[in-house]
Amino acid sequence: MTQLIVFDCDGTLVDSQYVIIDCMQAAFRARGLPPPAPAAVKRIVGLSLPEAIGRLHENGDAAAIESLVAAYKECFAELRASPELHEPLFADVVETLTLLQETGYLLGVATGKSRRGLLAVLETHGLAGHFVTLQTADDAPGKPHPGMLERAMAETGAEKGETVLIGDTVFDMEMAVNAGAGAFGVSWGYHDAAELHAAGADLVLDRLCELPPLLARRWGMP
């Protein structure tokens, strides 16, 4: 049996909300628009960048959305090169990923980030070696479309019943449900537990270190 555990990135592994909020507000200001409120930005974390900006700028046409996407990327590139960048890992991430990998699970990532952005995060925190499949908004339709998760399963040979997605937003839970995979929410991210349950979460973790025994029980392992 091939057991695949796929993680969201922002809000699940890495606390990147302040970077995303700062860049989103800077992008809107750069285009002469009122910046969105931090709470509004947190609501769209996890979506692909064009869709996220489209939700924040509902009256914008395609050209306006494209311009804001470019402004966001410019801001993020500048911040990525700055020593002020701060995207800390959440608690238990390294230890839990290491234990899961040593147990024999295959690990992956499915994120609304670009591949470049994801690789930068993984390199910064030394996490790249844990994952055998990386799915980004560059590779497939954004969440909650099941495409990224389906690609991860196809690449690893895992079946739907052998796959669990770990994420912090309703978009993650909906993607898992749409793909027929397990859906585990986390309580430390950007959407609350009640929303995650309503979106189809099988359960919601309070600590990432709770994950290995829950997976063992799910698949009847000792």
DSSP strand count: 6
The CATH class of the largest domain is identified as Alpha Beta
Regions with pLDDT < 50 over 5+ consecutive residues? none
Which range best describes the helical content: under 10%, 10-25%, 25-40%, 40-55%, 55-70% or over 70%?
Answer: 40-55%
What share of the residues does DSSP label as strand, in percent?
A: 5-15%
Q: Looking at CATH, which topology of the largest domain would you report? A: Rossmann fold
Your description of this structure?
The chain is an alpha/beta fold. The protein folds into 2 domains: 4-15 and 87-218, Rossmann fold; 17-80, Orthogonal Bundle (DNA polymerase, domain 1), CATH 1.10.150. It is built from 10 helices and 6 strands; from the N terminus they run βαααααβαβαβαβαβα. It has helices spanning 17-30, 38-44, 49-56, 62-80, 93-103, 115-125, 147-156, 170-179, 193-198, 211-218; strands at 4-7, 106-110, 133-135, 163-167, 182-186, 203-205. Strand 4, helix 8 (170-179) and strand 5 (182-186) form a beta-alpha-beta unit. Helix 1 (17-30) crosses helix 4 (62-80) and helix 3 packs across helix 4 (62-80). The radius of gyration is 17 Å and the shape is globular. The chain starts with a strand and ends with a helix.
